[in-house]
Amino acid sequence: MSSAGLLTLDVEDWHHANFHQLEGREGEFRGLADEKRYPIERNIDLWIETLASYGAKSTCFVLGEFAKNHPAAVLALQRQGHEIACHGMTHDLIYRMTQPQFREYLKAAIGALGELTGRPPIGFRAPSWSVGARTPWFCDELERAGIRYDSSEFPIKTPLYGVADGSLKPYRSGKLIRIPVTVLPFAGARIPFSSGCFFRLAPKVLIRVGLKRALAAGLPPMVVLHPRELDPDHPRLPIRGWESWVHYARLDTTLPKLHMVLKMMNWDSISNRLGQIEHSLGNF
Hints:
Elements: E1 5-11, H1 26-36, H2 41-52, E2 59-62, H3 64-69, H4 71-79, E3 83-86, H5 99-117, E4 123-124, H6 138-144, E5 149-150, E6 171-173, E7 176-178, E8 183-186, E9 189-192, H7 196-201, H8 204-216, E10 222-225, H9 241-248, H10 254-264, E11 267-268, H11 270-280
Parallel strand pairs: 1-2, 1-10, 1-11, 2-3, 4-5, 5-7
Antiparallel strand pairs: 6-7, 8-9
Helix pairs in contact: 2-4
């Protein structure tokens, strides 16, 4: 593998989340989002400008719903050379779908993105990492739909998501290539540091060490962020306790840490590096 990392952005609106306190209140939050009129597009512009200053590219896992509501932002990402991949149609949990429901959900999302960009996506990431033992048909359905790679595996079990014994390395499931989120193995444990709240909560030294260890092991380091995390002042959901803490803690650290990792190494989209990852699978 080359020394490039995989930089990814889950492109969704500020109100997309799957916390227990929000269950059954989706209609309420759509109304709240309309009322707030938060300009999420400016966070997309900030992502484009920040990465351009380092010559970096990224994979943007876009919700079909977001693409319909903010087509200009998605096309701006594409014009700047960022890969448009699929994050589903809506931010619903996949393990609550039946196989036929997921098939239609995936078809709608691929259709929405392909119609907008002129190019069907080849990559997928599940909302809230919501796949695992309860979705044994998941990879088969992605392959059936023409998806070439998936990045939905979080190889640590958390109260909200994750697979305790998930792979730390890219691997094949049929013809599908699965690329897990980067974590740091240490003393028999796995330490998350590279995605979302973990990126915000982790000290800079942990992020640096984790990324360097992945490179040294021949793995493609992956960072996962969201547009809302680039703006500490974005609107707040009515959640309390630890769920609020997880969602909003240390938002002011996102941009400084992003600049730090952009200086560490080259960053690219998954599609640009997929051939190298595929070629290296026999070495893992």
